[in-house]
Amino acid sequence: MRAFLPWLRALAAPAIIGILVWQLGSAAFLAALHVIDGRAVLAALAIGAVTTVFSAWRWCLVARRLGLRLSLRTAVPDYYRALFLNAVLPAGVLGDVHRAVQHGRGAGDVGRGVRAVVLERTAGQVVMIGAGLAVLLFRPSVVPAEFRDVVTICGVVVVFAAGCLLAAGFTVGRRWAASTSKWRRGLGVTLTDIRAGLLSRDSWPGVAVLSALTLAGYLAMFLVAARAAGSTAPIDELLPLLVLVLLAMGLPVNIGGWGPREGVAALAFGAAGLGAAQGLTVAVVYGVLVLVASLPGAGVLVLRAMADFWEQRKKDENGEDGTRAMTESERTGARLVERIVGTRLPTAYGDFRAVGYLDRRSGDEHVALVHGDVSGYGTLVRVHSECLTGDVFSSTHCECGDQLATALHAIVTEGAGVLVYLRGHEGRGIGLLAKLKAMRLQEEGLDTVDANLALGLPVDARDFRPAAEILRDLGVLSVRLLSNNPDKLDALQRDGIEVVEQVPLLVPPNAENLRYLRAKRERLDHYLPHLDEVGT
Q: What pLDDT does 445 receive?
């Protein structure tokens, strides 16, 4: 059955088009190609540009709430490229898949990159479904009588499923994210991301407004198509029909958007007394205008391909393979750290192999706690910075001690993983005494960032190159990084460690560290969505 479904989806759209040609003839399709003029094309390009900016902006909001860096300047061309690929490839979503994976790889977290795109598109679909339900409620006559019950039942099911998902996100999301069960943990992380990306007070107003503006852009494009196709029906009569046609485009049985859109347009226009052939012509004109509006995405594809070609050629001329950036130690042939000793280390969490390393530059002694077979790809890894106050004295000023314990427990539960414990990272690299001075300034009202700056010290002085060398020495080829810190992820990738996923390491806050954690989220972009559940 699973092997049959892709074929069913691929054949559904041609089947719908074939039935329409059989019933209505080919005149409606041919007429659409003759009615598109220069004014319609310019209007499509203008509306497409505005709609794309709104959609890309929505993507930025969701991605940032999930802890991924994405600027509007980057998002707009990427969104254009996705729209073009959606328009010319089967299923109508392959462009979105491409931008999700590409952004996830660039951000070092493919899983969260995919979820950001899924949530961004889901937000648009939710607003569209809401508009569709409003049409069914106030203008039920736009749906043919024989389909009215089916459409109503589908709408009720969708609303019920969305309600269940919202309830789960608010009740079990964070608890399941820390579960020892892999599937519960994966679902919990997804629910937590839904809450952070769509439902938090910092995201849902902007996402809702941008989704409504995007829907307005789609409807404006449809109105242009309707007028170009010769429809003289009033706007208030056309809009309910166009909402239903847009809903049909979300069905996963189309080819580049074609198929269900034309079928529903013919049915809806026929039921409204405007003529099924007229509805088919409007849908075809809309499809062509959407393709025209997405053409800047083809330009993005060409420019990116040319840039990649010249970059690769430059690397080839310089004798580099281009697979990853070389670290300073690799270029000079010198290693920053040297493996000194390895021994068994039983702990309260499970048995580890403790591997000790000496940092030749600073004299710091680092240790890697290794559990199970960690050589290969996708190894669960925690790079933990030394924190005497949190790790040893169990200070509640920070969450370091709880994160250390949670990471060790997660690695043992996983069955394999590495915790790299980096010495010399006290106070994000400023040292123990300076950290204590910064803590005193925080008592006086400064946050963790301004306290460091007030002392004339950097906000973060840590060097993660030793961790990268330690992981390579252990045979780790790529990592799933247990961290909420995007800078740590970026640092490892700069030093040649592939991060295939950023795994949140969320521990419950307390009254002592809540302000500190909020500063880390707001000032340092740490991924801490669970803070939204805590009051002031």
A: 87
Give me the sign of the Cα torsion angle 249, 252, 258, 259: negative
The residues pairing with 358 across neighbouring beta strands, listed in sequence order, are 338, 365
Q: Is 190 exposed, middle or buried (0-12, 13-18, 19+ CB in 10 A)?
A: buried
Q: Which long-range contacts (CB under 8 A, 24 or more apart) does 171-175 make?
A: 174/506, 174/530, 174/533
DSSP string, 178-238: T-SSHHHHHHHHHHHHHIIIIISTTTHHHHHHHHHHHHHHHHHHHHHHHHHTT----HHHH
Please give the model's pTM, rounded to 2 decimal places.
0.58
Q: For residues 192 and 178, what is the distance between their CA atoms, to the nearest angstrom?
A: 11
Cα 114 to Cα 98, 101, 456, 472: the distances in Å are: 9, 6, 40, 27
Q: Could you tell me which residues are beta bridge partners of residue 422?
A: 385
- The backbone torsions φ and ψ at residue 144, rounded to the nearest 5 degrees and listed phi first, read -55, 140
Q: Residue 189 and residue 200: Cα distance in Å, rounded?
A: 15
Tokens 């709104």 label which residue? 54
% of the chain with per-residue pLDDT over 70: 76
Amino acid in position 33: L
Bridge partners of residue 255, in order along the sequence:
90, 258
pLDDT in the model for residue 112: 78
DSSP state of 232: -
DSSP string, 36-61: --HHHHHHHHHHHHHHHHHHHHHHHH
Residue type, 403: Q
What pLDDT digit, counting tens, does each position of 475-489 carry? 888 899 999 999 899
pLDDT value at position 5? 46
Sign of torsion over alpha carbons 88, 91, 93, 98? negative
**Whether the Cβ atoms of residue 172 and residue 191 lie closer than 8 Å to each other:** yes
pLDDT of residue 480: 93
Strand-pairing partners, residue 369, are 354, 419
Which H helix or E strand runs over 518?
A: helix 514-524
Whether residue 192 has pLDDT greater than 60: yes
Which strand (E) or helix (H) includes residue 431?
none
* Residue 341 β-bridge partners: 356
3 state SS of 372: coil
**Catalytically active residues, by annotation:** 460, 462
Averaged over 312-324, what is the pLDDT?
A: 54
Q: Could you give the CA distance from residue 249 to residue 357 in angstroms, rounded to a whole number?
A: 58
Residue 322's pLDDT is what?
41
- In the numeric block, the tokens 């007229």 are attached to 278
Tell me the β-bridge partners of 481.
Answer: 381, 502
What sections of 421-511 are H helices per DSSP?
Answer: 426-429, 432-443, 448-454, 465-473, 486-494
Q: Is the pLDDT of residue 9 over 80?
A: no
Q: Which residues make beta-bridge pairs with 503?
A: 482
Tens digit of each residue's pLDDT (9 = 90 or more) over 87-139:
777 666 788 888 888 887 776 667 778 888 989 988 888 888 788 777 777 77
- How far is 293 from 512, CA to CA, in rounded Å? 53
